[in-house]
DNA sequence: TTGTAAGCGTTATCAC
DNA sequence: GTGATAACGCTTACAA
């Protein structure tokens, strides 16, 4: 493989000159630039990134931390989509992307340490935000550049993050249900350790309280993911004396599970119960019925995360930032007006 | 940040000794090992991976190439799942994972070149196999270590790859339909540029011919992805004078689209038409009806790819390998026996 | 068993 | 404008 020295020799210049040509340094005459570039072409030269990184103390790589791959949550189309966004932002600036997952929390932590201590990356994007997360604390202590997708659990004023206004979205969506005449609205959320769950729950609660509806604990269920989660939630909810007539579900995939279970129980959506969920993942269009859901702009979430991560790396003095990506309620066919004396279908 | 020299100083040894301790070189006395390790602990020393890579000419990183992120295919849960498998294999050997996507083919190619020429990775895993793929040719020419998930289009004897026996799986699944009494069986595939589509189509064809059924061109549709794809396919197929009574669909997600469209057309699955698909992605359990599908062991596909990639890197003399991951037909509720004079429901 | 010193391929700091 | 030369932090002959 050709090195910078070979090029220098062939072009009859010093290695440092070649380096300057690579960096397109303006103090090099056009003549030699051309000469050097020719030499590079002739030798099929490509700069060695590793060597450059060492000299530079910059890897132009950013690390991506994905939540524990053990659970099925990982199969959520949310991830490919946000990775797409991140990927775009990262490529635009010619950075590369380094992934890290693990089955347990400790494995993940281990992976991140490797990246940070080994100086394999210049910054880290966290794809989730959990209550009392070890990682966040670690990165803050190390003063290592990072951004969170989602809302930090604490130190919210010090950590750059990109998020939706989940509180407001949940509130709005619940209000929509209320507006449709529903008074018995349940909330089906994911793990309460995720900040996003909390926000959405809080928004839901606010809407309920504002409308002077009773906030009932038995209408709040937190379940693991999808299949089992959706099933359990639905079973619980619909064995109550007063089952809900509408459901706010914190995730499309969970909603799919819910829809499925409702169907096998012979409960019709939207005639018997309305369902609204979050994310507007591609699948929500194709479910039966198609889901009314809030589009949180996953792609943009990722794109912004990447852009801001790189900005922090390149301009370390920049203040912390909070980027709020807009959401949009997509009405499809899983919600309808609640009619007091409606007939149970079938 | 502490370097190897700082540790050496503190432990009163030469830097090379520290290096040997890191590598756990047996020729270092236990005494000094202990002393050095203490020094490392005291200073919070962690080896710098970049420096090591430069000296070593090995990055212990492997690059992952994901198909064009532009189309929705990318949102297929197939990817998170295979990444999980790869991730596991890669972590086991303490390698890291570098992702590369792009919106166009050229962008992807560009990204791979960066990885290869810049020596950012030691090997590359291709997550798809396409007819006449530029990348494959490039990597072969460069003699850069790589493995393909799927079946190479050419040079199949020279390229290490991990795949299912898609031909046989498709054949078997079609035979199953035939066994159930179906004689009008259509094939809904993805892009014919993907080798996997070809294999599955060929298996289907073989089964049809073996059974002396007529192989009709109008029963073969290749469509883009999911929503539109599924819709188009179904529309076409069911406007024929003799619409099929069973469908072999090359992907679960596509099958979801198909199910959806069938539903809006008032065609019942499985009563009016049976559907079988591929991949056994988590969603296939939750569709209405749950899909009969072939489980291709996505996770293992990824895991094997990673393991073999690393083996090739570490033992470059190893011969090429073909790893065939077993599949398994998962029967759920989308297929039933075909009854000649059955009544169209509704 | 350990130390010395060269080298990995760049960039950066001085000179000129 | 361009050239020497010293980093960058580690590994690895070769010596001792």
Automatic annotation (TrEMBL), chains A, B:
Signal sequence, start to end: none
Which Gene3D superfamilies would you find in this protein's record?
A: 3.40.50.2300, lambda repressor-like DNA-binding domains
The record's CDD domains line, in alphabetical order, gives:
HTH_LacI, PBP1_MalR-like
- Matches recorded under PROSITE patterns: HTH_LACI_2
Q: Does the keyword rRNA processing apply?
A: no
The HTH lacI-type domain is annotated at: 2-56
Under Gene Ontology molecular function, one entry of this record is: DNA binding
- Keywords on this record? DNA-binding, Transcription, Transcription regulation
Task: State the PANTHER family in the record.
Answer: HTH-TYPE TRANSCRIPTIONAL REGULATOR GALS, LACI-RELATED TRANSCRIPTIONAL REPRESSOR
The name under which this protein is listed is LacI family DNA-binding transcriptional regulator
Question: What organism is listed for this UniProt entry?
Answer: Metabacillus herbersteinensis
